[in-house]
Amino acid sequence: MSKQKKLIIANWKLNPENLKDAKKLFSDIKKVASRTQKVQTVICSPSVYISELNKMYSGHRIEMGAQDVFWENKGKHTGELSPVALKSVGAKYVIIGHSERRALGESNADVNKKMIAALKAGLNVVLCIGESKRDSQALYLKFLREELESALSGVSKNYLKNLIITYEPLWAIGKSADDAVSSHQMHEMYIFIRKILTEIYTKNTAFSVPIIYGGSAEPDNVKELLSSGEIDGFLVGHASLKADEFNEILEITNSI
Ligand code: PEP
User: Fold this and answer.
1) Which atom of ligand 1 is closest in space to residue 95's alpha carbon?
2) What is the pLDDT of residues 23-55, one digit of tens each?
3) Atom 8 of ligand 1 has which residue's CA nearest to it?
4) 144-178: per-residue pLDDT in tens?
5) Is any atom of ligand 1 closer than 6 Å to the C-beta of 212?
6) In whole angstroms, how far apart are CA 18 and each of 45, 46, 91?
7) Which residues are catalytic?
8) Whole-prediction pTM value?
């Protein structure tokens, strides 16, 4: 993972509905993503598409990722996907701790086990943390600290080169650019996350971890967030399903 490049990570969620449409979307995105040299594009598609989409591009400007993973690599775990298996079909990244997984019952302890297994398997982990709402006493900061500290429990500093932290407040997901985090709020979160990382690891290590933002990142807000928010990229949900919007985000990011 190059720290110089901005990361634009598409979270396709449970879309598109079939492989044919997934190939079409990938191919439309590839036209731009394959030439935006200052951007590392990552497509986190449904896992069943990873292998086929991976065959459609042989360079490194676009990498494939998954949206979740299990903490074991084999055994009696019906329906689970292992980190080693994901890697073997071409995944280089995996989102862990997304709020939509946490809403289905994933705990901080589960996130931690998934992180350790994925990092050990050599995957780059896109860890998501985010509060559902903000309160005037700033209790949400305590909540975020807990999410981050427990996710990192037992993760040695040698693995941090493969970690990306996504600040993704639930109140901003699936809305529009106007509802997203402001650059001022993002700046505060950037300092807060770096402070916690510095408390756990060394300052140098803490500053080497990319911090990205997710939650209604759209062509209309990425420029301002990138220019003033000190962030290293975006996790993009709904805008990643429209190739023209996603490609615009890639172009804007590449031009900054
Ligand atoms: C997400 O849920 O990861 C996400 C970034 O969604 P959206 O961009 O649609 O808010």
Assistant:
1) 3
2) 999 999 999 999 999 999 999 999 999 999 999
3) 237
4) 999 999 999 999 999 999 999 999 999 999 998 88
5) no
6) 11, 10, 19
7) 98, 168
8) 0.97
